[in-house]
Amino acid sequence: MTTISAFMEENFKHFNARETLEAARAWRELLDKGGRMLLAMAGAMSTAEIGISLARMIREDKVHAISATAANLEEDIFNLFSNKEYKMVPHYRDLTPEQERELRDQGFNRVTDTCIPESVMIHIEKILLDNWREAAAKGKPKFPWEFMYELLKTPGIERYFQIPPEHSWVYAAMEKGIPIYTPGFEDSTLGNVYCADVMRGKIPSHHGVRTGTEQMEHLAEWYQKQVEDGAPVGFFQIGGGIAGDFAICVVPMLIQDVKKKDTPYWAYFAQIGDSTTSYGSYSGAVPNEKITWHKLDTDTPRFMINSDASIVAPLIFMYVLGE
What we know:
Blueprint: H1 4-11, H2 15-32, E1 36-41, H3 51-59, E2 65-68, H4 70-82, E3 87-88, H5 97-105, E4 108-111, E5 114-117, H6 125-138, H7 144-152, H8 169-176, E6 180-181, H9 189-199, H10 212-228, E7 233-238, H11 241-248, H12 250-257, E8 268-273, E9 302-306, H13 309-320
Helix pairs in contact: 2-13, 3-8, 6-7
């Protein structure tokens, strides 16, 4: 059998296929120059089990920081603890409202063809609540990813895993000690739970979780550290929204607001998305638009892949891994 890389080289000649191959080639070239890569991830990629391929990318030093929706952070953890309890609904397009209600009443939340059981919290909620409460009570807040790392380091927690930890990208990030930025933490199941526990008096304040601006400062420090080490930093984006825009804005923030005029632009940019440019959305903006915002420069390698990320991202990852 041919390798995935050889297959792509032989067959991916035009259109989105060509763009996919060129983005993968340029990623390799960035790493070959000693570069670093930040991956931004929106959509339900964790529920799509992107961890199977992304975890390898992290462990093999192909990804060095992540900006993800808080839903992606938590859904990788949910999948790790409850994968065998998920319910597949391949015929989801044909479901009636009454069938949707039946799923709800059975304790399932549907994401396209995958139903996540409400029981995903059973093994982790008490640990998280205790850690949240302690952080708020002591006035020592932590980032959402730090709470996840604490959870995964809990003695004996492995007995609750329902998939190999090698398939969890958050577990891989914990092992490598890389940051996972989650702007808009409140827009997630765990963010909702945290707020509810404050309202119910279980947590003394909202200040157990560090704020979004603190995450931005941490990312700025991370970016400057890579630059000081002589490493060009690339940006690979899955989907759009806050996970992408939050992270990519660190460069214009440093240049225009911190007044560090010598801050280099992102050294690589690629995005997998399906949004239409003409609607004025950030998700659909072509990479050239980012030049006007001090995010990219005129000679930055940039790629826009209009396709399904659940198909394309693993192919790119395997190419970068040399498979």
